[in-house]
Design brief:
The protein has 11 helices and 8 strands. By secondary structure, the protein is of the alpha/beta class. An 8-stranded mixed β-sheet has the order 1-2-4-3-5-6-7-8, sandwiched between helices.
């Protein structure tokens, strides 16, 4: 971390926290803002913003491209979380830039959230975004035949559901296959719906058991990377472990990565340049997608990892721990037994 960036964070962190928790949409300043500062994100990336993929205020996406493309690049759609009731694509610029800096054409799409949308509408929006990718990504240097999906938290749920229940993609005419999926801190088995946020988003589903990825696993599922912090208080690590066992029982390729001592938000934040020294989640995603054809000629560039700060008590640690304290649980360990 540079001295200039470190000094800025020390001065701005209290301000960002106070505004971010109160007025994220209006001020465009949120608890994610420090991770998206120009000095804190990967360089060598071109961003095209606010592209409509369908009609609707929240049906827009951003595309991140490597500035130097040597032929068509693999494509990854990153789906953010937020408990199906929060989140905006601009907050995850650090993730889009990280993936593009490592050779992908990355897409981050907004989708409708509660109270505007409930299950399955947010999945339908993601499917529409994938249809846009299939039809248009070649114009941004992407190869639709090398298409991958990654997601965090509720976004990981969305990602695996689109692969396990292909009816959503068929409804919008998507024909390109998903080569592999990376699910970070994802909930895959959380019925009965005990928590208010989950009941709001799923409580009206006519077949609630059918909303659970763990109940939809077949041998046709794509390879999956399941990653989680071992101290996640929002989606317990047992959630990923139980889902992995179900996938393995059907002969599906699964790679499990568990980051010791970390919580719910830390793995996704560690995708960005500012906190990448904490854990190798970005390298794990790139390696996994490479195994399944992302880069037939070899990964074009390694993930840049900055030096850790001189003090373990860096301001980002306090901010990320604060994120976990304001989130509501999605699942508990005993649901996975």
């Amino acid at each position: 971390m540079t001295n200039r960036l470190s000094a800025f964070l020390r001065l701005s962190l209290p301000f960002l926290l106070s505004i971010g928790f109160s007025f994220p949409a209006a001020a465009q300043v949120t608890i994610f803002s420090p991770f998206n500062l120009a000095a804190a994100v990967d360089q060598g990336v071109r961003k095209t913003a606010d592209i409509p993929y369908a009609d609707g205020q929240r049906k827009k996406l951003d595309v991140y491209q490597p500035e130097k493309l040597h032929g068509p690049a693999p494509v990854v759609m990153f789906i953010y979380g937020g408990g199906w009731r929060a989140g905006d694509r601009f907050e995850y610029e650090f993730a889009g830039r990280a993936l593009a800096a490592n050779g992908f054409v990355a897409v981050i799409a907004d989708y409708r959230i509660f109270p505007e949308a409930r299950y399955p509408e947010f999945l339908e929006d993601n499917a529409q975004a994938i249809k846009w990718i299939e039809d248009n990504i070649a114009g941004y240097g992407g190869d639709r035949n090398r298409f991958f999906v990654a997601g965090h938290s509720a976004g990981a749920y969305n990602a695996v559901m689109l692969a396990l229940d292909r009816s959503f993609l068929r409804e919008y005419g998507v024909t390109m296959p998903i080569r592999a999926i990376a699910g970070i801190s994802g909930p895959y088995n959380f019925y009965p719906f005990e928590y208010g946020e989950v009941r709001d988003a799923f409580g009206e589903a006519p077949n609630p058991e059918g909303t659970q990825p763990i109940n939809l696993v077949t041998a046709e599922a794509p390879p999956m990377l399941l990653a989680s912090g071992t101290n996640d208080p929002i989606v317990r690590v047992e959630n990923s472990k139980a889902f992995a066992e179900k996938l393995k029982a059907q002969g599906v390729w699964v790679t499990e990565k568990y980051y010791d001592g970390f919580g719910h938000m830390e793995p996704v934040i560690a995708m960005g340049s500012l906190w990448r020294w904490r854990m190798p989640v970005l390298a794990d995603i790139v390696d996994f997608f490479s195994r399944f054809g992302a880069f037939p000629s070899g990964v074009p560039r390694p993930a840049f990892t900055p030096e850790p700060p001189q003090s373990e008590q860096d301001p980002m640690t306090a901010l990320i721990r604060q994120m976990d304290t304001i989130l509501a649980p999605i699942s508990v360990a005993r649901r996975d037994e």
